[in-house]
């Protein structure tokens, strides 16, 4: 039995016409002899609108109830797509996270999949050609609905593909992964291949074309991901372990921006690592994303700074108060209005001088970075939001992206 997982994102199922179009595409795959496990996102801007609605009720909506609300979006599209498929004569059935038994960690709004009971899918595939599964949602150990974080349907799809040991195709409104966001930079180049490591960095650093956790899972289980458009037949991008040998490795493969960054500075911490540990423990408990950490000792005290996303400010405040409840005299400041600009490429491992070219490009754009972090295959820096696009343009020119 040939099985494939296909995922269709919000824009691909935004209207009844598009849902019918997606149904046609799936039928074609069935006619080619495949059984298809389809993962769908909520229609269009549904998730945004549900969040807005919740905030009209409560300024900081209870996260359990928020998940209960958000999970409805995916259920709507799964049911509608199944109806469309049945009308085309395809043996199809929709299933939600409870039915598929997608188990996650407890964290509401940012849960991680821990296991999927594939027996439900396997049993159903005996009787049906297409199973339409709600993306983005899972169930935690308390039996409550959870969601996987914005863009999380990609992760639902790759996790299912990993469990079933089949390839995964992800369809959206772009026909592949580009050197940078093609909506913002129309001259960006489409990549035929990208490595897991590069895609992981790019997506974690702001490129929303894939949920970064989905790439993590694909890498772990060696699942190839094919990214393409649900609107055209254009050849897309393969996300793979290694580039094919005939392909020349670029020094820098892609660039991205993550907006809405806050720089947090905590001053006058005692010079004792237990306080740093306590801070990051509390941060971890709240599943907050902390990046660009810098630690500077001075005059017997420690000064810590890092970045977080704007939405996480209140949770971080709570975390700091808890971690430092026995400490006197510490101070924290939050500075908003920053973006994180990053370049990524496995070629950096072997090409010296990339950092110099990167900073020269920033200099030409008149931008001085505030914080810098690097790995073997990426350089990120924090820049003022209003200068970010200009800085990115300069970087794109420098590395011919
Ligand atoms: P879906 O709703 O189908 O999950 P998303 O909107 O989450 O689709 O992701 C697709 C979007 O990702 C594109 O519209 C594009 O603007 C954006 N994007 C950002 N960076 C890139 C990139 N490097 N390559 C392709 N698309 C990118
Ligand atoms: N519907 C969810 C969101 O908008 C999940 C997804 O699109 O992948 O974030
Ligand atoms: Mg997405």
Automatic annotation (TrEMBL):
GO terms for molecular function: aspartate kinase activity; ATP binding. ATP binds at residues 7-10, 178, 183, 208-209. Transmembrane segments: none annotated. Substrate binds at residues 47, 74. Keywords: Amino-acid biosynthesis, ATP-binding, Coiled coil, Kinase, Lysine biosynthesis, Nucleotide-binding, Transferase. It comes from the Bacteria. InterPro entries: AceGlu_kinase-like_sf, ACT-like_dom_sf, ACT_Aspartokinase, ACT_dom, AKii-LysC-BS, Asp/Glu/Uridylate_kinase, Asp_kin_monofn, Asp_kinase. Gene3D superfamilies: Acetylglutamate kinase-like, VC0802-like. One of its GO terms (cellular component) is cytosol. NCBIfam families: asp_kinases (TIGR00657), PRK06635.1-2 (NF005154), PRK06635.1-4 (NF005155). Belongs to the aspartokinase family. This is Aspartokinase.
């Amino acid at each position: 039995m040939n099985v494939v997982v296909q995922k269709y994102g919000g824009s691909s199922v935004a209207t009844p016409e598009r849902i019918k179009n997606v149904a046609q595409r799936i039928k074609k795959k069935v006619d080619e002899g495949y059984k298809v496990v389809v993962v769908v996102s909520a229609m269009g801007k549904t998730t945004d609108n549900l969040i807005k609605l919740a905030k009209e009720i409560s300024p900081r909506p209870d996260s359990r109830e928020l998940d209960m609300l958000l999970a409805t979006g995916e259920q709507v599209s799964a049911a509608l797509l199944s109806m469309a498929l049945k009308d085309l004569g395809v043996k199809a059935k929709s299933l939600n996270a409870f039915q598929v038994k997608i188990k996650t960690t407890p964290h509401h709004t940012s849960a991680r999949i821990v296991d999927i009971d594939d027996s439900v899918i396997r049993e159903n595939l005996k009787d049906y050609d297409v199973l339409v599964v709600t993306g983005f949602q899972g169930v935690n150990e308390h039996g409550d609905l959870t969601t996987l974080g914005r863009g999380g349907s990609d992760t639902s799809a790759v996790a299912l593909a990993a469990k079933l040991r089949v390839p995964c195709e992800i369809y959206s409104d772009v026909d592949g992964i580009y050197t940078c966001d093609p909506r913002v930079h129309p001259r960006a180049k489409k990549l035929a291949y990208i490595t897991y490591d590069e895609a992981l960095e790019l997506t974690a650093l702001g490129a929303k074309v894939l949920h970064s956790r989905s790439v993590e899972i694909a890498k772990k289980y060696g699942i190839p991901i094919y990214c393409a458009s649900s609107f055209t037949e254009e050849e897309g991008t393969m996300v793979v372990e290694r580039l094919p040998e005939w392909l020349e490795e670029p020094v820098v493969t892609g660039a991205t921006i993550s907006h809405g960054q806050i720089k947090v500075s905590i001053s006058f911490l005692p010079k004792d690592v237990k306080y740093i540990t306590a801070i990051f423990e509390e941060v971890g408990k709240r599943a907050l994303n902390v990046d660009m950490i810098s630690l500077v000792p001075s005059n017997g005290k420690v000064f810590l700074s890092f970045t977080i996303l704007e939405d996480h400010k209140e949770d971080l405040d709570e975390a700091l108060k808890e971690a430092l409840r026995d400490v006197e005299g510490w101070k924290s400041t939050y500075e908003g209005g920053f973006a994180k600009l990053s370049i990524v490429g496995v070629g950096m491992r072997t090409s010296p001088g990339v950092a110099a070219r990167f900073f020269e490009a920033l200099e030409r754009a008149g931008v001085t970075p505030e914080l810098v972090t690097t790995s073997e295959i990426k350089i990120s820096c924090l820049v003022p939001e209003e200068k970010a696009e200009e800085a990115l343009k300069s970087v794109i020119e420098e590395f011919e992206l």
